């Protein structure tokens, strides 16, 4: 049964790089091509072929053609190519599949038409994909053709109107909630006005009552950035905006204190999916939630976003109530995680283990009958340790390293008095004039003593070192204690990890690792030392605090 297509008005679209659209669609099908028997290639160079098209419908066209090619290709390849015509761009999807009989080349574009009934039963399709594809192409003012050889494959070619990057941009209706006109390179005057506008938004939301959550929006469409900024600023969000993935990564390298990132999937150079994957190298989904914006409506586009590391997705065009709800949910998620980390830090600050106090006091009592001078020093160390443990406010995010070092020295002095010659401490401090988050190093030193050195009858040595390397301060805590197995080294950060001594890592190491990742983007690195023990490396970005 065929349905009449009726009359349809041409699609009005925006300027799109066909390579970027094809890359997103291919990424979706790479996931579906789980066996890897079919090579999927995008031979379209970036920035070479710009078309005037509706983003969602162009993705649908390529998705349908890729879906059709893979359905009827058991092995070989599916290739997407493009060519420049007089006033249009031709895009070709070629497969090495079963091919189509010549007498059926025209009928496959009819509604509910399959090459044969067996194909329909095997693939589960209704035969609507190619019919819809032709209508979408025609709505853009183009046409689609097919050539095929039985047993060797098929080539589907469609055309779309071409536009130059510097062509004049058609104005959109003023009453659209989100403007969708592309601005490849906004005029300098407009750009300066936009920067000024963004600054005003940042300042006004930042001063309006309590904390204003910070959102980073990444989209190459200037109008989208402006519209989203205007809308979200009304909800007391502080907005920063970037026009490319590389610019966003550069900003995040300098400023890591964002509550949410909204990323457009379709961007030239670096796609939103690739940007999401790059962000996930240093941010967990809890430390920086990501909301992906996509024009693709298929379920597999959502799966691609999740695989890249997104927390949620939203389809264009946005429904404001839907967007607002998703943004609020993800911002609250990040703030709840931040509050939990703050609570854990408070617990670490107040957590004086009863057995440590008991052992320290007993050691001091024992020493008081033998050496009064040493007793006074140990009492001073205990007082200093207690004061240092309680001396941080919950809002303090950085302290001088010398302050942490004094806490470590007091702790090790008390433990050395208790264990005698079984515990040795060495300090190789090449640089000390820098700041770091509180309670980063001392818990690691304590862990080395308790779970590394004191598990050996002969004890051992803990070595604390600092050095500057480029723009970073490297802090190393090494011991020659019991060490860890390969399995323990690979899984030490898992929530369920238990040490071989029957004690869990608690919140200490995980909290330290999360705080370092959140604030600096550098995790704890734990490895087996050359002397058989464990070496823990902490990386702190260096800033000249003296000048």
Give structural attributes.
547 residues; alpha/beta; five-stranded parallel sheet; 16 helices
How is this fold's topology laid out?
Blueprint lengths: L13 E4 H15 L5 E5 L7 E4 L1 H17 L4 E9 L3 E8 L21 H7 L5 H11 L4 E6 L3 E9 L26 H19 L7 E5 L3 H12 L4 E5 L2 H10 L5 E5 L7 H8 L10 E5 L4 H10 L3 E4 L4 H31 L3 H15 L3 H19 L8 E2 H19 L3 E7 L5 E2 L5 H12 L6 E10 L2 E8 L6 H6 L16 H13 L4 E4 L5 E8 L6
Parallel strand pairs: 2-4, 8-9, 8-10, 10-11, 11-12, 14-16
Antiparallel strand pairs: 1-3, 4-5, 5-7, 6-7, 13-15, 16-17, 17-19, 18-19
Helix pairs in contact: 1-2, 1-9, 2-4, 5-6, 7-8, 10-16, 11-12, 11-13, 12-13
Question: Can you describe this structure in just a few lines?
Answer:
By secondary structure, the protein is α/β, with parallel strands linked by helices.
Number of strands: 19
Question: Outline, from the CA principal axes?
Answer: elongated
| Global mean pLDDT | 75
Helix-residue proportion: 40-55%
Report the total helices. 16
Structural class: alpha/beta
Radius of gyration: 31 Å
| Strand arrangement across the biggest beta sheet | 2-4-5-7-6
Strand residue percentage: 15-25%
Give a structural overview.
There is one protein chain. With 547 residues, the protein is an alpha/beta fold. It has 16 helices and 19 strands. It has helices at 18-32, 55-71, 117-123, 129-139, 188-206, 222-233, 245-254, 272-279, 299-308, 320-350, 354-368, 372-390, 401-419, 442-453, 486-491, 508-520, and strands at residues 14-17, 38-42, 50-53, 76-84, 88-95, 144-149, 153-161, 214-218, 238-242, 260-264, 290-294, 312-315, 399-400, 423-429, 435-436, 460-469, 472-479, 525-528, 534-541. The strands form five sheets. A five-stranded mixed beta sheet has the order 2-4-5-7-6. The chain has a five-stranded parallel beta sheet with strand order 9-8-10-11-12, sandwiched between helices. Strands 14-16-17-19-18 form a five-stranded mixed beta sheet, covered by helices on one side. Helix 5 runs parallel beside helix 6 (222-233), helix 7 packs parallel to helix 8 (272-279) and helix 10 (320-350) crosses helix 16 (508-520). It is elongated, with a radius of gyration of 31 Å. The model is unreliable at 1-9, 115-127, 164-209 and 495-506 (pLDDT under 50).
């Amino acid at each position: 049964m065929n349905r009449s297509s009726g009359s349809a008005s041409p699609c009005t679209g925006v300027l799109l790089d066909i390579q970027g659209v094809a890359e997103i669609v291919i990424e979706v099908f790479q996931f579906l091509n789980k066996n890897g028997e079919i090579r999927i290639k995008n031979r379209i160079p970036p920035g070479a072929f710009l078309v005037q098209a509706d983003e969602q419908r162009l993705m649908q066209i390529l998705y349908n053609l890729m879906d059709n090619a893979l359905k009827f290709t058991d092995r070989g390849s599916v290739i997407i190519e493009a060519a420049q015509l007089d006033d249009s761009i031709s895009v070709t999807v070629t497969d090495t599949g079963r091919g189509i009989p010549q007498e059926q080349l025209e009928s496959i574009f009819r509604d509910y038409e399959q090459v044969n009934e067996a194909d329909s039963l095997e693939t589960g399709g209704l035969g609507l994909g190619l019919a819809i594809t032709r209508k979408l192409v025609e709505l853009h003012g183009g046409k689609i053709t097919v050539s095929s050889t039985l047993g060797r494959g098929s080539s589907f070619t469609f055309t779309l109107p071409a536009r130059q990057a510097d062509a004049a941009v058609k104005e959109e209706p003023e009453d659209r909630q989100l403007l969708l006109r592309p601005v490849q390179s906004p005029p300098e005057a407009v750009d300066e006005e936009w920067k000024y506008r963004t600054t005003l938004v940042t300042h006004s939301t930042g001063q309006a009552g309590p904390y204003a959550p910070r959102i980073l929006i990444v989209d190459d469409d200037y109008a989208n950035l402006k519209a989203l900024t205007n809308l979200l600023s009304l909800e007391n969000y502080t907005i920063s905006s970037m026009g490319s993935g590389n610019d966003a990564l550069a900003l995040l390298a300098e400023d890591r204190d964002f509550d949410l990132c909204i990323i457009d999937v379709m961007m030239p150079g670096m796609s939103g999916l690739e940007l999401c994957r790059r962000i996930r190298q240093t941010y967990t989904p809890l430390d920086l939630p990501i909301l992906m914006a996509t024009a693709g409506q298929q379920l597999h586009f959502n799966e691609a976003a999740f695989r890249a590391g997104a927390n949620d997705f939203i389809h264009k065009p946005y429904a404001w109530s839907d967007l607002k709800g998703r943004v609020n949910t993800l911002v609250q998620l990040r703030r709840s995680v931040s509050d939990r980390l703050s609570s854990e830090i408070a617990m670490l600050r107040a957590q004086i283990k009863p057995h440590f106090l008991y052992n320290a006091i007993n050691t001091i009592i024992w020493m008081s009958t033998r050496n009064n001078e040493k007793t006074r020093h140990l009492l001073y160390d205990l007082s200093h340790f207690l004061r240092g443990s309680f001396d941080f406010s919950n809002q303090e995010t950085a302290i001088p390293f010398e302050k942490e070092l004094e806490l470590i020295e007091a702790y090790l002095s008390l433990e050395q008095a208790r264990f005698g010659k079984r515990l040795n401490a060495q300090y190789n401090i090449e640089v000390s004039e820098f700041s770091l988050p509180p309670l980063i190093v001392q818990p690691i030193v304590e862990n080395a003593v308790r779970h590394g050195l004191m598990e050996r009858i002969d004890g051992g040595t803990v070595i604390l070192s600092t050095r500057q390397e480029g723009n970073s301060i490297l802090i190393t805590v090494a011991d020659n204690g019991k060490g860890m197995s390969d399995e323990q080294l690979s899984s030490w950060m898992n929530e369920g990890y238990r040490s071989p001594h029957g004690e869990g890592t608690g919140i200490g190491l995980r909290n330290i690792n999360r705080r370092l990742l959140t604030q600096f983007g550098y995790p704890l690195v734990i490895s087996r030392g050359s002397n058989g023990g464990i070496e823990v490396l902490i990386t702190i970005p260096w800033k000249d605090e003296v000048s």
